[in-house]
Amino acid sequence: MNRQKLHRESHQTYVWFRDAAERGNPYAQFNLGILYKKGEGVERDDAAAFRWLRLAALQGLAFAQNHLGAMYYHGRGVEACDAESARWFRLAADQGDASAQQNLGHMYRKGRGVAQDHERALSWYYRAAEQGVASAQNLLGECYLHGLGAAVNYPLAMAWFRKAALQGDAPAQLNLGLMYKRAQGVDASDTQALYWFRQAAAAGERGAQRQLGLAYADGLGVKADARRALAWLQRAANHGDREAQFILGTMHAEGRHTERDEPRAIEWYTRAASQGHVAAQYNLANMYAHGRGAACDPQRAFDWYRRAAEQGAANAQFNLGVIYANGQGVERDEARAAHWYGLAADQGDASAQNNLGVMFASGQGVPQDDRRAVYWYTQAAEQGHALAQYNLGGMYNSGRGVARDPVRAYMWMLLAADGGDDTANVNKTIVARRLSPSEIGRAIDLSHKWQLSHREVAGRRQGR
Is the pTM here over 0.85, yes or no? Predict the structure, then answer.
């Protein structure tokens, strides 16, 4: 009975707004457009909603202009058009409509319908934030946090996040928690971080649910509790948080905070990987490649390696190179192997650099070029790659691609042997037989200097 009464009242409201709208009343036109947009008292009709909202917007009604801009933005009832969307947002924003001001800020931030301009985005967010719009306050805080349109300013970022968070804005609560967790402009406080993560998680903010799960897993600001950690991570994962899905996959794969369950790990990795999570794609490929949690499936492994590689993952690019070089589940193709090795090598992957050196040295998949082979062996050798050090030693010993230098050859073989390369351990003795005691001493000194300098570099990196 109540439902019938509500339906009858909704229809009467529709009739009243329609009659007034047809007489040119802009407020009635706006309200009629909203009824069509929401399907209240009338069948939902985006085209009709657009038509009535446009009539109200043309009469200067700011909130109608803002809604019209949103319809152009999303392509509802009209063909999507960023330029028209920005134009209507601006008309409403200039009249002081806070929602339109925030929306216009988005257009400038993303460069949609207008040239990207972070300073103007910040300016429009600021106007909306000053009117108390919590979401705009959060966005303004993000501008100051990341230095978008203004210099990085942690105190201002925190101030705006706090304003929004106290209004119950979940993304701002998450951002505030992260600032406490990362000690950005404030002393690190796991307790404060946890407080804000709880607030946001309770409101359904999936990123906060993930952070809350991690807090319980690692005992940050709260007593460690594996059961609660998994519960919060699963809540975030079931809400589509791909990072939580990846973390759950890793936990099940490694048996961390839960029993080891590789089939379950594959399920979570697949969900994250399907959303484009690169590390999940790579781990999933590894599991199919080695038959972990599922039958060995070279084709699936190849597909997931390829997806991760196309997103720039150097380790996946290297593995694709190996697959093409050996013809594992695909037709052997040395040129493609060299291509993928090259992409990974350019990103500093030492194994790819060594393998690319091998291909240039032997002319496999690329024109034979000893100098380029030496270049790539050197790049990998300087990273401590034992096999590359041995290969580079061989080039110095034979004078291929570099001036012959038996002392340097012995130095690199010593380093390779120390790095665990068995072939270098055997062949260094053969090379040493052709050297004088003073040459052997020089090579040993050079190897010690190399090890010392690389320890210092590693120490400086760890101290950052």
Answer: yes
